[in-house]
């Protein structure tokens, strides 16, 4: 069965680096035209140049965007549609992480995380979604996190913002199904991205992360991109409203730890 990705137009936020960059390169390899949407236009240009080198000119464009600003998103989406004539795929990868204990979270950090992670996903989904609803087809994938399913200690507003992304995904999936627009989310576990690179320079921190993952390693961006590629393809034509957890089994270990803790308490009685 053909994936149906070839010839599709994909608008990918946060695609100058990390998971978003890998998604852009992966979908381009599958034959999609790519709108590399990012606030970092210099980084986005590097991704566009790489795509054009590998797949020929006019395969990708830079769409500078601040996903927390409605006008900026509208302008970026209009540029993509004007350049390629349509919009078939949206992948919301833009996100930030500001770790704090909750009693130390300041309002500015809360607002910044929510504005990018949740509001940004909302704005991009609705503005790009209008194009998909108009053409009666499309696929949206939102990047959530295992922190939106189980609490991450000292992660500040990050977990709540990603829980909101999961809920938003389900809401849009229900409302847009009648327009043949599918909406899903992917919740990665710990992944080898620039956002995590600084923290992982500390070997002890890295080992603590790995110790909580049954597969014994952190994810590579390509492993997350592969799941996203499936979800936006025709192979997932009957999949909508789902949150796919890609964490190497980390959530299973979390439940295992809780169970062990309960057993320990029983022994203390």
Topology diagram in text:
Blueprint: E1 9-13, H1 18-29, E2 33-38, H2 41-55, E3 60-64, H3 70-84, E4 89-92, H4 107-135, E5 138-143, H5 158-176, E6 181-188, H6 194-200, H7 203-211, H8 221-232, E7 243-246, H9 250-268
Parallel strand pairs: 1-2, 1-4, 2-3, 4-5, 5-6, 6-7
What's the rounded overall pLDDT mean?
A: 92
Q: Quote the CATH topology.
A: Rossmann fold
Mind telling me the CATH class? Alpha Beta
Strand content: 5-15%
**Strand adjacency order, main sheet:** 3-2-1-4-5-6-7
Helix content: 40-55%
What does this structure look like?
With 269 residues, the protein is α/β, with parallel strands linked by helices. The protein has one domain (9-268): 3-Layer(aba) Sandwich (Rossmann fold), CATH 3.40.50.720. Helices cover 51% and strands 14% of the residues. α1 (18-29) packs across α8 (221-232). The radius of gyration is 19 Å and the shape is globular. The chain starts with 8 loop residues before the first strand and ends with a helix.
């Amino acid at each position: 069965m053909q994936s149906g990705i070839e010839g599709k137009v994909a608008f990918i936020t946060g695609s100058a680096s990390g998971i978003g960059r890998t998604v852009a390169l992966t979908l381009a390899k599958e034959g999609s035209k790519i709108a590399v949407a990012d606030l970092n236009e210099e980084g986005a240009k590097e991704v566009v140049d790489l795509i054009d080198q590998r797949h020929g000119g006019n395969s990708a464009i830079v769409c500078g965007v601040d996903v927390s600003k409605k006008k900026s998103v509208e302008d970026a989406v209009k540029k993509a549609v004007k350049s390629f004539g349509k919009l078939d795929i949206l992948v919301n990868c833009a996100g930030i992480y500001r770790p704090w204990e909750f009693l130390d979270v300041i309002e500015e950090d809360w607002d910044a995380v929510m504005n990018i992670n949740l509001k940004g996903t909302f704005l991009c989904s609705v503005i790009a979604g209008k194009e998909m609803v108009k053409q009666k087809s499309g696929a949206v994938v939102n990047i959530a996190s295992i922190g939106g399913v189980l609490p991450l200690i000292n992660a500040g507003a990050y977990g709540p913002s990603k829980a909101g992304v999961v809920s938003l995904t389900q809401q849009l999936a229900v409302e847009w199904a009648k327009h043949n627009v599918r909406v899903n989310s992917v919740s990665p576990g710990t992944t080898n991205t620039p956002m995590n690179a600084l923290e992982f320079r500390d070997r002890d921190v890295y080992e603590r992360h790995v110790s909580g993952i049954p597969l014994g390693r952190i994810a590579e961006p390509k492993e997350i991109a592969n799941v996203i590629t499936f979800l936006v393809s025709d192979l997932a034509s009957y999949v909508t409203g789902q949150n796919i957890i890609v964490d190497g089994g980390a959530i299973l270990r979390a439940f295992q730890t809780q169970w062990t803790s309960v057993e320990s308490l029983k022994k203390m009685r």
